Amino acid sequence: MMCALYRVTRAGFYAWQQRQPSQRAKGDAQLLEQVRVVHERSRGFYGSPRVTGQLRLDGLAVGRRRIARLMRLAGLQGRSARLYRHSKVLQRAFFASVPYRQDTAQTQESNQVWVGDVTYLKVAGQWRYMAAVMDRHSRRIVGWSLSHRRDAALTTRALRQAARNRNSGPGVLFHSDRGIEYAAFEFRDQLARLGMLQSMNRAGKMNDNAHMESFFHSMKTEELYGKTFNDEQQLRQTLSSYIAFYNQQRLHSSLRYLPPAAFEMQQARQTCVN
């Protein structure tokens, strides 16, 4: 009856049953296992764009559509929090006013380009949001903040802390993704008061903010993975300890295997000699 229903011969049906999986199907199965690992390590937060971005950071040349298809078939979804609803037309017009400037921002020293991002963390079953600011030249985390809300106040606090810690002057370029917490007037006003220029990811280009994605991935896999936190103070202490380790001790291949603090000191000595 099934053969008649689908208008196929019995021989064709049995041949289909016995046919070995194609190379494409085998490749999809292997890739799906890697997708599951990335999704699990993100605590279920990453959707297909961030999973694709992380796999690319891990050295895999994969397309976002393929990852989205595999996640959909496996029932994997990202966890997101929408703060505001905006017309897509208004969104496009608004973000078009904030250019992508990273491609022309070649750094020679610290305090020329800062990058920022927000990630999700859990405390006693509840979400907390961490905003961090990195000096792109030295990879040093120069400011961060933690809150139970993901909003402009969170990112503004991290920016203010970075400005105090670095005592930076006007002209710093600040780059982020297109999150509303970076597009809000409160955050943009703070940038203007500090004399900073703003840059945002291009539409659909997740790797434009790869430096911060890489830091959050390292922090979660090296320090947070497998740990549980009963209160926010425990999480704050752990984050503070890891950031101190990351800045002062962790070796970075992109910095000639120096920690960010040592790299900055070496750069300062070279500047003094010259």
- Please list the strands of the largest sheet in the order they lie side by side: 3-2-1-4-5
Report the strand count. Answer: 5
Q: Considering the protein shown, what is the CATH homologous superfamily of the largest domain?
A: Ribonuclease H-like superfamily/Ribonuclease H
| Helix segment tally | 12
Q: Biggest sheet: strands, sense, closure?
A: 5 strands, mixed
- Which topology of the largest domain does CATH recognise? Nucleotidyltransferase, domain 5
Number of self-contained structural domains = 2
Q: How large is the share of residues in beta strands?
A: 5-15%
Structural class: alpha/beta
Report on the structure:
A five-stranded mixed beta sheet has the order 3-2-1-4-5, sandwiched between helices. The longest helix is centred in the first third of the chain and has 19 residues, at 23-41. The chain has helices at residues 2-6, 10-18, 23-41, 48-57, 64-74, 88-96, 152-166, 180-183, 185-194, 210-224, 232-248, 260-273, and strands spanning 113-123, 126-135, 140-147, 173-176, 197-200. Mean pLDDT is 83; it is low at 81-91. The chain starts with a helix and ends with a helix. Helix 4 crosses helix 5. It has 274 residues and is α/β, with parallel strands linked by helices. The chain folds into two domains: 23-79; 100-273, Nucleotidyltransferase, domain 5 (2-Layer Sandwich), CATH 3.30.420.10. It is built from twelve helices and five strands.
